[in-house]
Specification:
Structural class: alpha+beta
Largest sheet: 4 strands, mixed
Radius of gyration: 17 Å
Distance between the termini: 32 Å
Strand order of the largest sheet: 2-1-3-4
Low-confidence stretches: none
Shape: globular
Bound molecules: glutathione
Number of helices: 9
CATH topology of the largest domain: Glutathione S-transferase Yfyf (Class Pi), Chain A, domain 2
Strand content: 5-15%
Mean pLDDT: 97
Order of helices and strands: EHEHEEHHHHHHH
Helix content: 55-70%
CATH architecture of the largest domain: Up-down Bundle
Number of strands: 4
Number of domains: 2
CATH class of the largest domain: Mainly Alpha
């Protein structure tokens, strides 16, 4: 297998964290070294990450790539083992993506000067939109008061996505992060995982606050 990335792209970092959690090491290729035609051949949308499987299939979408890697690796699944666990992971992962990751991305795009030339910015809309994340953090506080991690008593894909979203919100200083005891405990536990090193490197490279 080969993973096509750019070293400073958040969605590539997500897959790198996932690989470390699985204990997998695979060849990575910076798409900056490819010609335009080669990049288009592996993904006509020209986005990364892209996974090239041993069967020669190109898989895009970071979540789908993580699902594939989980399926082809022996051991406990980060997407859940039993039906109930898989449903919990899917539910919390989707909430985390929609209520933390997406508002963080929109906040960055609409409020940060570095994106001013790339799109028409609506900062007031983004500041309203990010209030969904405040609600989600309150829901997480309650959940984490009764469960060690979001979807199970162990780290899963749901925790990975939620942590990435919160890291984005903190990095852009989109909301004041005032975690209660349960969320604070979870943030400390997830942040301390060795797999999170590329996320910290990303924040440092952009000069952003990190958790
Ligand atoms: N939904 C896609 C989003 C992929 C995406 O937008 N990736 C960004 C980097 S995080 C990208 O490729 N931007 C263009 C580029 O860097 O060439 C995923 O989860 O993989």
């Amino acid at each position: 297998m080969k993973l096509y990335i750019r070293p400073i792209a958040p969605n590539a970092v997500k897959v790198m964290i996932f690989l470390t959690e699985l204990g997998l090491v695979i060849e990575t290729i910076d798409v900056g070294t490819l010609s335009d035609d080669e990049y288009r051949r592996i993904n006509p949308l020209k986005t990364i990450p892209v996974l090239e499987t041993d069967d020669g299939i190109f898989v895009t979408e970071s979540l789908t790539i993580c699902q594939y890697l989980d399926e082809v690796t022996d051991g406990t699944r980060l997407f859940g083992d039993s039906l109930n666990e898989r449903m919990q992971v899917a539910m919390w992962e989707r909430r985390a993506e929609q209520l933390l990751v997406q508002p963080a991305i929109e906040y960055g795009h609409h409020c940060q000067p570095m994106f001013a030339g790339a799109l028409r910015q609506f900062p007031d809309w983004a500041r309203d939109h990010v209030q969904q994340s405040v609600k989600m953090l309150a829901v997480m506080e309650n959940r984490l008061a009764e469960s060690r991690f979001l979807a199970a008593d162990r780290f899963t894909m749901a925790d990975l996505t939620a942590f990435l979203g919160i890291a984005g919100l903190v990095g852009w200083e989109a909301i004041p992060l005032q975690p209660g005891p349960a969320l604070g405990r979870w943030l400390g536990e997830v942040s301390g995982r060795p797999s999170m090193a590329p996320l910290k490197a990303l924040a440092q490279q952009f000069g952003l606050k990190s958790i």
